[in-house]
Amino acid sequence: MITEGIHLFKTAFKNTRRQIFVSGIFLVAITGVLTVILYLAESRVDPEFSFWDAFIWPYEKYLGDPGKIVDEPLISPIGKFIATLVGIMGVAIFAVPAGLIGSGLTDAMDEEKREKELDEYRVRIRKSFRRVLNKETQYRVAPRRVPVISLQAKKGMSEKDIIDTVSKFKEFRLRNLAASQVASEHPQDRLVIEILPLDEQTVDGYTIEHTDYGIKINRGSNVTIITPSAASENSIGHVGYYLAQFGGFNYVSREFVTDVDEPVSYYKIDGEKNEWEKPLQAFVEDIMKLSKDSSHWNIILVSSDNVYETQFHFVHSANEKTGLSHTTLEDYKLLELYAVFSEKMKTEYEYLSDMDETYRPVGKKNIGVITGGGTKNNAFTLRISYSVTTWSSSSAPVIVDMAKVIKQYLEKPERNTFEDNPSWKDTGCGYGTNK
C-alpha cells in the first residue's frame, strides 16, 4: 500500500513538474519586479534601506523570517502594499505546487484505474480470438479478424475502450475492411481488429522471435514464407502465418510500421542499404540468413485487388535492369509446382492462377532480388486476391492445400511429405502459445 502511494506521488510529480517549474519561474519573476519597486519606494523615505534589504525582504517573508532579519515594518504606503502582496504570494508559493500535485495525484489515480481497465479489456479481446475448429480440415485456426461492432454488442465495450486497448497493446491492430475492396464494389467502412502472432512459441513448438519489424520463425525449412506487407494489408499476415505452419516452413513477417505518416515499403525497397531504417535492415538480414543455400526458396506473399479474372498471380520474371531473366535458379521446380497448384485451386475452389501475366516483372528494388533471388537462391512473388485472403469463407482449406503443394515440390526430400500435426487441433486464443 505504501509502495503504491509512493508510486502514485512520483507519477503525479512527474506529470506536473513542468507546471510547477513554470509557476515557480513566474513567482520568482514577480518577486524580482516587487523587489525593484520596494527598493525605489522605501529608499526615498529611509536612506538606510539598501537594495540588498529590498532583495532579501520578500524571500525572508516567504520563509516566515525565522531569524527576524526583516522584522522592521515598511514605512512607505507602496512598501506596505507590497508587503500585503508578498503575504499573498507567500501562501501561493506553497499552495500552487500543492494544488498542482494534488491535481496530478487525482490524474495519476485515474490513469492507474484506466490502465487496469485496459488490461482487463485486453484479456477480453484476446478471448475473442479463440481458435475455431475448421470442419473441412479438422484444424483449429485463429479468426482472421473480429469486428469492432461485435465487441460492442457481445461484450458491452465502448468504441473508445476498444480503440484505447488496441492502441496500448501492440498485439492488436485496427483495420478497415473497406481497404480490401475497390471503388466499383462500393465499399462501406467497417472497423475490425486483427491479432498479431506475438506469442512466445508456435503451437508446434517453435520459438516466435520478436523483432523491431515483426516476427521470425525458423523451422529449419528449405522454404521461407515472407509477408512484407502484413502490417498494412488485410489478412495477408494470417494467410502467411498459417501457410508456414501447415507446411512446416520458415516465416518472416513485417508486423509493425515505424512511422505511419511516412510509411516505408518492405516489398519494393528504395534507397541505399545505409539509408534504410534499422527494422528494414534487420528484415533483409534475417531473410538472407535463412536462405543462404542455392536450393532455398523465398516465397513473397502480397495482396492483390479483386479486379482480375485470376486470383493467384505468380511473378518470377525479372526486368532488364536486374541483369536476370528470372528470380529463380531452378525454374523447372516452380513450373511443376505451378501446374499442380493452378489445377488444384481451379478444381477445388474455382480459383484461377496466372504466371507472369497480370503483373510486370520485378526490378532491382524487389525484396526477393535484394535477398538473392536468381543469384544465390530461388524467389518468387505470389500475389493473392483479397477475395481469397479476406473474403473467402474457405480460407483454411485453401491454405492447407497451398502448403501441401509447396511442400511437395520445394521442400527438402526428407521433409516434403505433408503430415498431420496434433498441435494444429489445440485450443487456445490467438496464433501461438506462451507455454
Structural commentary:
- With 435 residues, this protein is α/β, with parallel strands linked by helices.
- The chain folds into 2 domains: 1-121, Helix Hairpins; 200-425, Aminopeptidase, CATH 3.40.630.
- The chain contains 11 helices and 13 strands.
- It has an 8-stranded mixed beta sheet with strand order 6-7-9-8-10-13-11-12, with helices on both faces. Strands 3-5-4 form a 3-stranded antiparallel beta sheet.
- Strand 11, helix 8 and strand 12 (353-355) form a beta-alpha-beta unit.
- Helix 6 (236-247) packs across helix 11.
- It is elongated.
Rg (C-alpha, Å): 33 Å
**β-strand amount:** 5-15%
Spans with pLDDT under 50 lasting ≥5 residues? none
Percent in helix: 40-55%
* Overall average pLDDT: 88
If helices are DSSP runs of H or I spanning 4 or more residues, what is the number of helices? Answer: 11
CATH C-level class of the largest domain is: Alpha Beta
Distance from N terminus to C terminus (CA atoms, Å) equals: 32 Å
CATH architecture of the largest domain: 3-Layer(aba) Sandwich
Order of helices and strands: HHHEEEHHEEEEEHEHEEHEHEHH
Give the CATH topology of the largest domain.
Aminopeptidase
Count of folded domains: 2
The number of E-state strands comes to: 13
* Main sheet properties: 8 strands, mixed
Q: Helices and strands: which structural class?
A: alpha/beta
What would the principal axes of the Cα set say about the shape? Answer: elongated
User: Spatial order of the strands in the main sheet?
Assistant: 6-7-9-8-10-13-11-12
